[in-house]
Amino acid sequence: MRLPIHKPIFRGFLMIVALEIIAIAINMFFAPHEVAAGGATGMAILVQEAFNVPLWITTLVINIAMLGLAFSFLSGGTTRRILFGSLALPVLLSITPQMMLIQDRLLAIIIGSIVIATGFALNYRIDASSGGTTVPPMIFAKYFKLRPSIGLLIVDFVVCLFNIPVTGFDAFALAIFSVGITSLAMNFIETGFDRKKAVYIMSNQQLPEIKQAILANNDFGLTVQQVIGGYSNETREMLMVVVEQRDFRHLVNKVHKHDPGAFIIAAEATEVHGGSI
Questions:
Q1: Average of pLDDT values for 20-28?
Q2: Phi and psi of 271, rounded to 5°?
Q3: Which pairing describes strands 196-202 and 263-269: parallel, antiparallel, or unpaired?
């Protein structure tokens, strides 16, 4: 059953959940250990350590400033999309207690990175945003054709650098480490729970038999394409099959049973929409 993520009420609920997960990561893992791992909240952690200003106040000020930039340089639709997250996250930071759940600094940052990656991934899943320093990369992309991922990495690195004069080099190293873990965790969370194999099959003689054998198994999604062979330069049919990871070896054995010399290419398919799967 698919979740009704396109319904406004459900999307709003998921966005609040995602922002609260981010607030928990900041208030219970990063801020208690004085590690600013990029973003507006990272800047807020540094301001809190240097001037004892509450996290939520600095985050709100930065987010409002970023909203102004978005309004000036980006489309109205983009500004509206980040408006709710920009204002809701500081509120959630203010009501979420700030406490040190884990004493070990390295372990806290590792767990915090995974927690915050979960919040970010959920936000991206519903095409939402917490605002803040996600705005400058959008501006860089629009006016300088710089990829948003590169722009965000640059912004986060600059924020991480400020750990050195405020909280020390150890905090800087942990912040860089956290950015890497968060990126990897987000990638896995977004695609790792639904990975499949896209398998391409060519056979000189037994392709119809292979096709029938595959179609006999309803768990496989199959399409037939016309391709030009690179070796023979002849047009021929190719089967494309999408299977679960656990079924990949079973599919290969089935193909080789009919044609041991069949040409097979397999690739990761992180998202599949439509069809029979």
A1: 97
A2: -140, 135
A3: antiparallel
What are phi and psi for residue 83, nearest 5 degrees? -60, -50
Quick one: the chain helix, strand, coil %, rounded to 5?
65, 10, 25
* DSSP letter, residue 218: T
Identify the helix (H) or strand (E) that includes residue 40.
helix 39-51
Q: Write the CB contacts of 152 (distance below 8 Å, at least 6 apart in sequence).
A: 133, 134, 137
CB burial of residue 117 (10 Å; 0-12, 13-18, 19+): buried
Closest CA to 179 of 198, 193, 196, 160: 160
How far apart are the C-alpha atoms of 90 and 3, rounded to whole Å? Answer: 28
If we measure between CA atoms, which residue out of 6, 12, 186, 151 comes closest to residue 85? 12
DSSP assignment, residue 30?
I
* Separation in Å, CA 247 to CA 12, 195, 209, 256, 264: 37, 12, 19, 14, 15
Q: 68 CB contacts (<8 Å, ≥6 apart)?
A: none
Cα angle value 271/274/277 (rounded, 5°): 75
**Which residues fall within 8 angstroms of residue 43, CB to CB, at 6 or more apart?**
36, 58, 62, 133, 159, 162
Give 228's pLDDT tier (boundaries 50, 70, 90): very low
Q: What is the pTM of this model?
A: 0.77
CA–chain centroid gap for 95, Å, is 26
pLDDT in tens, 176-199: 999 999 988 888 887 666 678 888
Q: Are the beta carbons of 271 and 194 closer than 8 angstroms? A: yes
Residue 31's φ and ψ, nearest 5 degrees, are -60, -45
